[in-house]
Amino acid sequence: MFFERPDGGERAVLVHLEAQDPEAREDPQEFQELVRSAGAEVVALVVVPRHQPSAKYLIGTGKVEELHDLVGAEKVELVIFNHVLTPSQQRNLERVLECRVLDRTGLILDIFAQRARTHEGKLQVELAQLEHMSTRLVRGWTHLERQKGGIGLRGPGETQLETDRRLLRVRIRQIRQRLEKVRSQREQARRGRRRADIPSVSLVGYTNAGKSTLLNALTASDVYAANQLFATLDPTLRRLELEDVGPIVIADTVGFIRHLPHKLVEAFRATLEETSNADLLLHVINAHEPEREAQIEQVMTVLGEIGADSLPILEIYNKLDMLEGIEPQIQRNAEGKPQRVWVSARDGRGLDLLRQAIAELLGDDLFVGTLRLPQGFGRLRAQFFALNAVQGEEHDEEGSSLLVVRLPRVELNRLLSREGLRSDEFLEQHTLQ
Which stretches are transmembrane (predicted)? Predict the structure, then answer.
């Protein structure tokens, strides 16, 4: 790349700080799952009970010496911290431990780089990596000082470090421009779906909650699903037919995680806009996870960052097959609307209830009925057809059109008001049971 660092490897020692502050506390089990998802072999997990992080190494000098001995004895090539390291802390640790050091953000970035499949996903990962790297350029080119004068030696007068930073800025700007085009293309696709009156639903949730497995079970598709963190990175759209609602589009999105790096949230904003523009969010929750309440809180935090926390949310408690004594069910709020559905995406139990709950929530503001339009309402009839809202048509003995229509009530009220009609009076007189 732009600078020299120790070579990376697969054998890793993990370092976890046991902090007193609940906000800064990380889960060591989740940390080990992240490392395994990255493909590393865990040699040892070192737990450091430290209440006041060191500015130089994050951990104390005694623990640093202990780590150095462990790295040498086990021939370890990589030390991973379950916390965010400052650039100086990372450099100091690499100098002392004589191996590559990675922090939590760098680990997640590496997993994302492995999972990216589409051109857009790779661009988003590269953007996050470059922005992370831009603060961590080290003076690895010690043999290059500021360029000198003389034949063959004249140059722009930059140090190699300054050249690296300039090249990074140029590349970051190029990627941002490309992602801006992706964002506009996605917005055009969303406008097309809105014009066709196709509701959009977005699957959100903590990583490895079972979103992709649920999508496959609902839509009979073959989206990649695995029991690992961040198995899904690239957004996936699938079509689903619901009774009384018609076709809807379901988007599977990247999973969230505790303390998701802000660089990733920013880099994946084009993808996460599918979530912030959805008509309904399906919050998939691992019902078998002991820390599920904390995971729910983390998901709501990220939804707040992308402006999607105010959207209608249906909670889906998944992995019912791993629990005993709980049957598939719909739990409703005080108004009788579905609030929570218990399902098992693996064996299919409760999926019919889930479809019912989604249809209820999406069809809440949907008008489905038969309208009797006398011959003088030809223009209104044409507008219903133009919106693809007509499901069927017959004619009575008087020559009136009997239209079976399905469209949002907001759209119906807009059409009627444009014709100078009051929706309540018109529907009372012209709706057939």
Answer: none
